[in-house]
């Protein structure tokens, strides 16, 4: 059996509106295997709002090592409990 280590990341950034006039800022906590996986997941989530992926700008991506620092309670639950398949 292969053990995969999943990390929790906090992503800060913004995406430009269709005409580039406004910026919509976001802060999202996502669990993923690496940074590229998290970026891809976030682009899918924001792309569901009909935002083109090239309009998304990532300002800061940081790994959260302490589970008490996670703000989202669902993500915190997945980070603290042991889940087996």
What is the structure about, briefly put?
The protein is an alpha+beta fold and 85 residues long. The chain has two helices and three strands; from the N terminus they run ββαβα.
The overall average pLDDT, rounded, is: 88
One letter per element, helices H and strands E, the order comes to: EEHEH
Give a short account of the largest sheet.
3 strands, antiparallel
The low-pLDDT segments are none
Number of beta-strand segments: 3
Q: What is the CA–CA distance across the termini? A: 11 Å
DSSP strand (E) fraction? 25-35%
Counted up, domains total 1
Question: Which structural category fits the helices and strands?
Answer: alpha+beta
Q: Any overview of this molecule?
A:
By secondary structure, the chain is α+β, with helices and mostly antiparallel strands. It has one domain: Roll (Ubiquitin-like (UB roll)), CATH 3.10.20. Helix content is 25%, strand content 34%. The protein has 2 helices and 3 strands; from the N terminus they run ββαβα. It has helices at residues 35-47, 73-80, and strands spanning 7-16, 23-32, 56-64. It has a 3-stranded antiparallel β-sheet with strand order 2-1-3, covered by helices on one side. A hairpin with a 6-residue loop joins strand 1 (7-16) and strand 2. It is elongated, with a radius of gyration of 14 Å. The model has no long low-confidence stretch (mean pLDDT 88).
Keywords:
single chain, 85 residues, alpha+beta, Ubiquitin-like (UB roll), 3-stranded antiparallel β-sheet, 2 helices, 3 strands, 25% helix, 34% strand
